[in-house]
Amino acid sequence: MALPKQLQAGLTPDELTFLAEEDAVDIVPLFSMSRVRLLSGVYGPFTPPARSRVPLWLALSLKRKRKCRIVPPAWLSVESLTAVIKDEREDGEGFEPLPRRFYEISKVLLDVAADDLTEPGQLRSLLKDLREMRQGKIRIGLQSEGVMRSNYLQVTNLTPMELCELKPFLTKAMGMMQGLERDPDE
Questions:
Q1: What are phi and psi of 46, to 5 degrees?
Q2: Which DSSP string do the residues of 62-88 spell out, in sequence order?
Q3: What residues does the GINS subunit domain cover (predicted)?
């Protein structure tokens, strides 16, 4: 069964965030409990100060109830983001590899668990800089003559969020390019 036209454009940022909440993160529980069986799996035991690995949605729920502290991923630090931005600048046209749900997870953690992060203000600034830098590279890549002459666009190392933002434009542009390339004798 085909999707309705309004659903064919792609996923929304909220839908991508919902999908990202299945990714596992470490927490430090502030309560004690043996294993808990949920529909999505078995989690625990929860014994402070030992870390437990749970899906992001569960970590966010526990955090909102002040039942845990979320351990940020290693890539969500000022040092790591600074290094990624430096590498992104040095690699003129290519994109640095990022974790699959990079933007979604970082936004949720900054919104819900900013007190568990070191220097959340600087993290927000670095994430904004990185996002703008990558969007600029995408715009430059789309404007270059090489892209307009070929039937494909190199999107290696783009995150699902970046692809989601790019998809409506690309599908329209590629359709127009195919229409221009058709042989008039057909």
A1: -105, 105
A2: HHHTT-EEEE--TTSSHHHHHHHHHHH
A3: 75-178
Are 139 and 129 within 8 A, CB to CB? no
pLDDT in tens, the chain (186 residues): 454 565 556 788 889 899 999 999 999 999 999 999 999 899 999 999 999 999 999 999 999 999 999 999 999 999 999 999 999 999 877 889 999 999 999 999 999 999 999 999 999 999 999 999 998 888 887 776 444 445 556 678 899 998 888 877 777 777 776 777 765 555
Rounded to 5 degrees, what are φ and ψ at 66? 60, 40
Tokens 């039942």 map to which residue?
67
Q: With contact defined as beta carbons under 8 Å apart, do 63 and 97 qualify?
A: no
Question: E-strand spans in 14-136?
Answer: 24-29, 36-38, 41-43, 52-55, 68-71
The answer, yes or no, to whether the previous bond of 49 is cis (omega within 30 of 0) is yes
Which one, of 129, 3, 136, 32, lies nearest residue 78 by Cα? 129
CB-facing half-sphere around the CA of 48: CA atoms within 13 A: 9
